[in-house]
Amino acid sequence: MSRDSPLRSAPAGRGADQRPDEEAPFSVSELLGLVSETLEQQFSRVLVVGEITSFKRAASGHCYFTLSDNDAAVDALIFRQSASRLAFHPEVGDEVVCRGNMAVYAKQGRMQLYVQAMKPVGEGAAQRALEALKRKLEAEGLFSDDRKRRLPFLPKTIGVVTSRSGAALHDILTTLRRRYRGVRVILSPATVQGAEAPSAIVEALGALAELAQKGECDVAIVGRGGGAAEDLAAFNDERVVRAVAAFPCPIVSAVGHEVDFTLCDFAADHRAATPTAAAEAVVPVRSELVEQLGALDLRLTTATARYLDTLRHRVGDVAGRLRDPARLVAGGRQRVDELAIRMERVLTSRSVRERERLASARAGLDRAGRTRREALDERLTELRSALERGLRDSQSRSRSRFATAAAKLDALSPLSVLGRGYSVVTRDDARIVRSCDEISAGDELSLRFHEGRAVARVISSDHEE
User: Fold this and answer.
1) CA dihedral defined by 185, 189, 194, 196, rounded to 10 degrees?
2) pTM of this structure
3) In the chain, N or C terminus with fewer CB closer than 10 Å?
4) Phi, psi (rounded to 5 degrees) for 411
């Protein structure tokens, strides 16, 4: 600014009659005050159209943003009271018309547009390009739910693509150590912000993909912490989105915060709001797994005990219905004695009848006289022989039937089995033991043999299939 500028003649605190040619330098605050005053006078009520390329809402409620076009940009500010009256929520990429005044922020010597009102006029160029890319990739099926893979339940190795110095890596490692200490983490570092970020992320994903194809990486996390839209732009780059979609193992996108979405979020198998949430998604909590295993073990033990109790009751019921072998043998013996007595009675009765017939024949022979005596004696001899043969045959058949019945009875007798060297094993509660699964080392068992009993103690048992 030259000394004869009109601005030089009206500094605050200077006399209006001061000559322009006199040496009188401005202080910084005086200079900025003159500029601000001129701007406020010349641009006290202006309408400016442009695209929001950055936007930040402070805790105080004031909103700070950048308004841009193809050739220039200007910082802008809208105070909380004016922001609360807006009919929409400004976002990066919105093309808006702002009404306000220009002034200088003296602390930083920066010109700003102080906005009193703002309204949208349509999507900004950057937002339109992003939406066009999203529609293109979606039409190719890169965002389809059918492509989404389930995350492994308990991965051995986790790959991470993020900045080596960013807070995202610290959050991921801290969360993994807290939830499941000991899991292996492979870092494939990349720049996540700036013009070189897309190429760096694609290269880092490629290096990690080679390990995944060899089975050395089970799941991957790609992302960074939150930031302005231009800070997250790398994760909307088509090259990065395609690399995420083609990754050979399940991958989690953890870009930004809860309200931030990028195209990588749609292409990944799983989207996490933050790097911490991504780490929580890929590994379970070890203590919770131990607790679940304990509960399952208790359920298994309880079910097994209940099943064994059921089998014991069934065995007890069956054992209660079995008859005592000694009683069965005693009954068989009684039946044999009864048959022997009946056979003896039959044979005696038949012998008596035959003797009576013989006596009758002898008497008849005596009455027939001497003349027929020889014939009768001969006949008597024949009858005696026939009688003897008949008695022998009858006795032989009876003995054969008796032997057959005795053999059948002996075959059915449990004592017959015991006679071949077997024994009946019972527990101390008189239940019969049929399997070594029913006894344990140290149990006392009762052994019944063909002749006599014995008591034994189990030293060991072995179940053979």
Assistant:
1) -140
2) 0.44
3) C
4) -65, -35
Q: What are phi and psi of 103, to 5 degrees?
A: -155, 170
Q: How many CA atoms lie within 13 A of 281 on its CB side?
A: 20
Phi, psi values for residue 248, rounded to 5°:
-75, -15
Distance of CA 7 to the CA centre of its chain: 77
User: Given pLDDT bands bounded at 50, 70 and 90, which one contains residue 125?
Assistant: low
Q: pLDDT digits over 77-119, tens only? A: 999 998 888 767 888 888 888 999 888 887 777 888 999 988 8
> What distance in Å separates the CA atoms of residue 264 and residue 266, rounded to the nearest whole number?
5
pLDDT tens track for 184-194: 999 999 988 88
First to last CA, the chain: 108
The alpha carbon of residue 115 and the mean position of all alpha carbons in its chain are separated, in whole angstroms, by 55
Tokens of 166: 């960013």
Amino acid letter, 307: Y
In whole angstroms, what is the distance from residue 364 CA to residue 354 CA? 15
pLDDT band for position 19 (cuts 50, 70, 90): very low
How far is it, in rounded angstroms, from Cα 288 to Cα 427? 45
Q: What is the CB-side half-sphere exposure of residue 213 using CA atoms within 13 A?
A: 8
- Between CA 134 and CA 138, with CA 135 as vertex, the angle to 5 degrees is 85
Residue-wise pLDDT for 354-382, tens only, equals: 888 888 877 776 776 666 667 777 888 88
Angle between helix axes 238-245 and 197-213 (nearest 10 degrees) is: 10
Cα(236)–Cα(53) distance, integer angstroms = 15
Mode of pairing for the β-strands spanning 453-457 and 444-448: antiparallel
